[in-house]
């Protein structure tokens, strides 16, 4: 893997690592082998990712991940890029009992001011929320993604913790109604975008596209050197939305899952 690709992955992985670091009931750390997150409440947020390892060090990375995740007794996900080391690393994971996830992830970026496509909606405004009205974001998020109601308190606590650690939360508002949401975290000149969603009854009207278009264009006016990144399911409608905004695919991420119940 070239040094430039290594640096890109390190930059993107670090942004995601920081975003998920501020979650209640979690253990996190990173070292030269990768980024490690174990959440003791929501299994799907337990993951590790090797950022710049070649095949020669992959076993060392796995030794650390098994140690961190109680010798495999906890469900977790290993995320690896589809690069020159992919075939070897995937073989090692399969030999150790990992199962390939059916969902591949497109890691996308928008890096140039002239690449952003504008989709204005004068009826839509973006409100940045505070700890006093964070529940507005939580309500939109749960409507958009249909999360189990049992997780609402945990997600609420997560939002408050992330707000205290410089993660910004926004809702899109039309005619006084909160209809869409997203959040972001900035690391150096990189802004990672997460949790993009629209309430079910308002979907397919272009609100999320207009919301992100407005947000990104305003940030770029402030600083033309900013870069934006996000992740989405490969070949999904969301992916097409991000392409239409000007995002480009940087690499594909393959996920392998360890689940001791299998």
Q: Which labels suit this protein?
A:
about 260 residues, alpha+beta, Aminopeptidase, 7 helices, 12 strands, about 35% helix
Tell me what the structure shows.
The chain is an alpha+beta fold. The chain is 34% helix and 30% strand. Strands 1, 2, 3, 4, 5, 6, 7, 8, 9, 10, 11 and 12 form a twelve-stranded mixed beta sheet that branches. It is globular and about 55 Å long. The mean pLDDT is 90. It holds the Pfam family FR47. Residues 124-262 form the N-acetyltransferase domain. InterPro entries: Acyl_CoA_acyltransferase, GCN5-like_dom, GNAT_dom.
Find the CATH topology of the largest domain: Aminopeptidase
Please report the number of helical segments.
7
User: What gross morphology would you assign?
Assistant: globular
- SSE pattern: HEEEHEHEEEHHEEEHEHE
**N-to-C CA distance:** 33 Å
**How many β-strand stretches?**
12
Helix content: 25-40%
Taken as a percent bin, the fraction of beta residues is 25-35%
Number of domains: 2
- Radius of gyration in whole Å, from Cα? 19 Å
Layout of helices and strands:
Elements: H1 3-21, E1 26-31, E2 34-39, E3 47-49, H2 58-68, E4 76-81, H3 86-95, E5 99-100, E6 105-110, E7 124-128, H4 135-145, H5 152-163, E8 168-174, E9 177-187, E10 190-198, H6 207-222, E11 227-233, H7 237-245, E12 248-258
Parallel strand pairs: 3-4, 10-11
Antiparallel strand pairs: 1-2, 2-3, 4-12, 5-12, 6-11, 6-12, 7-8, 8-9, 9-10
Domain N-acetyltransferase: 124-262
InterPro entries: Acyl_CoA_acyltransferase, GCN5-like_dom, GNAT_dom
Pfam family, one: FR47
């Amino acid at each position: 893997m070239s040094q430039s690709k290594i640096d890109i992955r390190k930059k993107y992985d670090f942004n995601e690592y920081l975003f998920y670091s501020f979650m209640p009931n979690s253990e996190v750390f990173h070292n030269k082998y990768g980024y490690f997150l174990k959440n003791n409440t929501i299994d799907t947020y337990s993951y590790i990712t090797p950022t710049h390892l070649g095949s020669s060090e992959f076993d060392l990375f796995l030794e650390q991940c098994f140690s961190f995740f109680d010798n495999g007794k906890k469900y977790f996900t290993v995320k690896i890029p589809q690069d020159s080391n992919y075939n070897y690393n995937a073989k090692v994971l399969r030999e150790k009992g990992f199962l390939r996830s059916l969902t591949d992830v497109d890691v996308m970026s928008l890096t140039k001011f002239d690449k952003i496509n504008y989709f204005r909606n004068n009826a839509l405004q973006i409100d940045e929320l505070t700890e006093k009205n964070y529940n507005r974001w939580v309500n939109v998020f749960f409507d958009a993604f249909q999360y189990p109601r049992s997780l609402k308190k945990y997600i609420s606590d997560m939002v408050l913790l992330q707000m205290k650690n410089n993660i910004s939360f926004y809702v899109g508002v039309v005619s006084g109604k909160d209809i869409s949401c997203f959040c972001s975290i900035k690391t150096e000149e990189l802004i990672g975008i997460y949790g993009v969603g629209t309430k079910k009854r308002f979907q397919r009207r272009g609100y999320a596209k207009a919301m992100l278009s407005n947000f990104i264009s305003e940030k770029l006016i402030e600083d033309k050197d900013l870069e934006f990144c996000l992740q989405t399911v490969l070949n999904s409608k969301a992916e097409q939305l991000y392409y239409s905004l000007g995002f480009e695919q940087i690499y594909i991420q393959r996920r392998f899952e360890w689940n001791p119940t299998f």
